[in-house]
Amino acid sequence: KNINNNIINDINNIFTNVEYKTSDELQRIILFYKNNNILHIRHYKIIKDNTDVVRVGLKEIGPRIDLNID
């Protein structure tokens, strides 16, 4: 339980120290999602295709983290 609390505190510190940018300046995103008792953390690079129709995609660049939070 102590390890989980330390991890949660570390994640909280990440969010409180984030420098927010406008959508035009974004190059990477970090995604957090919970599935059952596992917290998944993914790091993506935003891929933009500036043709006639603007397309946006994501490419996973790591690290990939899965934490058991039971």
TrEMBL record:
GO terms for molecular function: rRNA binding. One of its GO terms (biological process) is rRNA processing. Residues 1-70 form the Brix domain. This is Putative Brix domain protein. It comes from Spraguea lophii (strain 42_110).
